[in-house]
Design goal:
By secondary structure, this protein is of the alpha/beta class. 32% of the residues lie in helices and 23% in strands. It has a 9-stranded mixed beta sheet with strand order 6-5-4-7-10-11-12-13-14, covered by helices on one side. A 3-stranded mixed beta sheet has the order 1-3-2, covered by helices on one side. A two-stranded antiparallel sheet has the order 8-9.
């Protein structure tokens, strides 16, 4: 029998290992990729152009609207002053107010807005408000507000004359808040109380009196406030008594002691009232007014009413 031959595998050296042939790029795939890239770039460019065009149109529309609004705001008659309405003034005349403010028709509504930040935010004529208060001491507060179409509303709050204070060569007219309303020459007239016993150094319009001590002034103003409060309570139709007008004077003495001199209807002499504590002054003045109106003093002979204790005593 023929012998089986074993075929030995051929051993290749490292240098003799055949290299794997590189795959040749397919021309079709490369062309497709290039076409896809160009198409994507064109689409991106188209979208960018459309987006830019839309923004441009929106900006043009916005500028046209803004220009139209500005033109209307500047030239529409409703944005210019056509009417000036003043209310609340009695002592200060309308002519005085208009002369001081120097506001004229056909001026723009916002032309006088200014002053503090609050005045600007709330659309007030802040500078003109301060000017009016500084030039007329009777004006305690003022509000000047423009309102579309073409209106300016001026609301005045005036101070009320409640007392006189003697000063060298004349007297000062005093308001409820202690401000000086007028400085006059001559003797102190009747009609409102005179504040006496105050160490006055000087008086300036629109400012409180300048004194060496404010204690007496503050107490006198508290008494005046209580008198005004008693006059403002509910009255009957027949009650026409003016409490303030019948107070001759309020005299401050040392140690926080004060006296009121009051005229009594149907009685020739006045009654002097020694004022009690400031904590009960409102109740005391209400009782005093009621006593006068009800005729309590008409048949009495006493001339000094002591209100400092728990019980009122007429001596």
């Amino acid at each position: 029998m023929p012998s089986d031959e074993v075929r030995k595998p051929k051993i290749l050296l490292e240098d003799e290992v055949p290299e794997k042939p590189e795959a040749e790029p397919e021309e079709n795939d490369t062309a497709d990729q290039e076409r896809g890239t160009d198409s994507h770039a064109r689409e991106k460019q188209r979208r960018s152009h459309v987006k830019f065009s839309l923004k441009a149109v929106l900006w043009v529309v916005f500028l046209v609207i803004l220009f139209t609004v500005v033109m209307l705001f500047c030239f529409l008659p409703g944005f210019h002053i056509q009417n000036i309405e003043i209310s609340g003034n009695e002592k200060v005349t309308t002519e005085e107010i208009l002369s001081i403010l120097d506001i004229h028709k056909d001026e723009h509504l916002i032309s006088h807005i200014g002053g503090s930040l609050k005045s600007i935010v709330t659309m007030h004529y802040g500078n003109l408000e301060e000017k009016l208060k500084s030039e007329r001491s009777y004006i305690q507060n003022v509000s000047i507000v423009p309102s579309f179409p073409g209106n300016v509303y001026i609301t005045i709050t005036e101070r009320k004359k409640v007392a006189y204070v003697a000063i060298p060569d004349g007297y000062a007219v005093i308001a409820e808040d202690g401000a000086v309303l007028e400085i006059c020459q001559g003797d102190v007239p009747e009609g409102v109380p005179e504040l006496r016993g105050l160490p006055v150094r000087s008086a300036q319009l629109g400012k409180p009196l300048d004194m060496t001590s404010d204690e007496g002034y503050e107490i006198s103003l508290s008494i005046l406030g209580a008198i005004l409060g008693a006059d403002s309570i509910d009255k009957t139709e027949d009650d026409t008594f003016d409490f303030l007008a019948n107070i001759v004077c309020i005299r401050y003495c040392e140690n926080m002691t004060s006296f009121i001199e009051v005229k009594i209807p149907n009685r020739e002499k006045t009654v002097t009232v020694k004022v009690g504590s400031m904590t009960t002054i409102s109740d005391d003045m209400q009782w005093l007014r009621y006593a006068i109106v009800s005729g309590y003093f008409e048949e009495k002979t006493g001339e000094l009413l002591d209100m400092t204790g728990n019980n009122y005593i007429l001596r």
